[in-house]
Design a protein that fits this description.
alpha/beta; Aspartate Aminotransferase, domain 1; Aspartate Aminotransferase, domain 2; seven-stranded mixed beta sheet; 12 strands
Length: 408
């Protein structure tokens, strides 16, 4: 009889307090619901994450394949700040589109997607306890990046009442004085809010000068706009470069979400700390991907127009159908989303409870508004990321769901 082996003690090491402060990741929580729906063999219609379903345009894919196959030097470590050709291309894109000049040597930085850049921006600037002004609701990394860097978010509510634009006058002066920077995002995710012109940006620049803080504008949806609407760039406003930065991504514009290619532009004094921290933490964007990004930005933009046209077709189909079945659904001017108040019969429940009930009863997955911040409660975000024909199926299910109403 062999002696029983003693079990090794299980280590009990807690993760950082910062990690504990984070809420459950929004899309991870919804993924649990989706897995349960799949387990029940439900036909899931996934409208939760803004994950483009359309393929990357062929000419961009071809550029990547050619580079990887025929240019083995691109397989080596890239420059953390981005290759000169990519940075010159970004500077040229801004010059052509917005009439703004950037020095590609020190005012343009390649990013592994704008999400990474925003998180690293927080790490580059924030000490424990530092305050950052952030819209609520917001794209999750705007808030979570602050918390992970040890900072303290201060909410700027954006609601229907204020047209999803923060009221700068409502920010207490003592809070503004201690804030290091401000996150804004137009066209806005998740609310689909847009700016009529650059007047809000001008106010933001004055505010930043008065309180000595950096403005970080997330401009990921600049090209996803409809019916002649042209989203303004923060950087096209005189004085913007002296107070801030603009973050951008190729993910939505060119259906390159998984490629992780983005960039930021702005004043060199703001770019430099971000470049420095990236040099310690990552090796930058794979060179072959940067060259594909060059191709995307400089080739014909018909592929972008085609993508926008398809998103609009889906939005019109879904909003018209939702309004017919009694779920009020405004048609947005930009982004690939709908931001909807809960149907009237369901307004006594929270957005997470509603989203759980929706997927359990219909197989349709949407993002609960509360996952984007407390001021998102009472809403859901719908991402237009499945084939056009699926919206007919979704509307049939939703019609029965809304007619039936909540349980009990």
């Amino acid at each position: 009889m062999t002696p029983e082996k003693k079990k090794k003690p299980v280590l009990r090491v807690d993760p950082s307090r910062k990690l504990k402060e984070l809420p459950p990741y929004l899309f991870g929580a919804v993924d649990v619901l989706k897995k349960e729906a799949y387990r029940k063999k439900l036909d899931v219609i996934d409208l939760c994450m803004g994950n483009p379903d359309m393929p990357t345009p062929p000419h961009i894919v071809e550029r990547l394949c050619d580079t990887v196959l025929n240019h083995p030097r691109t397989h080596r470590y890239p420059q953390a700040k981005g290759m000169p050709k990519f940075r010159r291309t970004v500077a040229g894109w801004y010059r052509k589109k917005y009439g703004v000049e950037f020095n590609p040597d020190n005012e343009v930085l390649a990013l592994i997607g704008s999400k990474e850049g925003i998180a690293h921006m927080c790490m580059a600037y924030l000490d424990p306890g530092d305050t950052v002004l952030v819209t609520n609701p917001c794209y999750p990394v705007h808030r979570n990046g602050i918390i992970l860097a040890g900072g303290v978010p201060y909410d700027m509510p954006i609601t229907e009442k204020n047209s999803f634009i923060p009221v700068l006058e409502d920010i207490p002066s003592d809070v503004a004085r201690r804030a290091k920077f401000m996150f804004i995002n137009y066209p806005n995710n998740p609310t689909t809010g847009t700016l009529e012109d650059t007047s809000f940006f001008r106010k933001v620049i004055e505010f930043a000068r008065a309180y000595n803080l950096i403005v970080c504008h997330d401009f990921a949806y600049s090209e996803i706009a409809y019916d002649g609407y042209r989203p303004p760039s923060f950087m096209e406003v005189p004085g913007a470069k002296e107070v801030g930065m603009e973050f951008h991504s190729l993910s939505k514009t060119y259906n390159m979400a998984g490629w992780r290619v983005g960039f930021c532009v702005g004043g060199r004094e703001f770019i430099k700390p971000l470049e420095k921290i990236k040099s310690y933490l990552d090796y930058g964007v794979f060179t072959a991907l940067q060259l594909s990004g060059v191709k995307a930005l400089t080739a014909s933009q018909k592929c972008v127009r085609d993508t926008v046209k398809e998103y609009r077709r889906r939005q019109v189909k879904l909003t018209e159908g939702l309004n017919k079945i009694g779920w009020e659904a405004p048609l947005p001017r930009a982004t690939m989303y709908l931001w909807l108040r809960l149907p009237e019969k369901f307004r006594d429940m929270g957005s997470l409870e509603f989203s759980e009930l929706l997927i359990e009863e219909t197989g349709i997955a949407v993002a609960p508004g509360v996952g984007f911040g407390a001021y998102g409660e009472g809403y859901v975000r719908i991402a237009l990321v499945t084939h056009y024909q699926r919206y007919h199926d979704a509307l049939l299910r939703l019609k029965d769901f809304i007619r039936k109403g909540p349980p009990g």
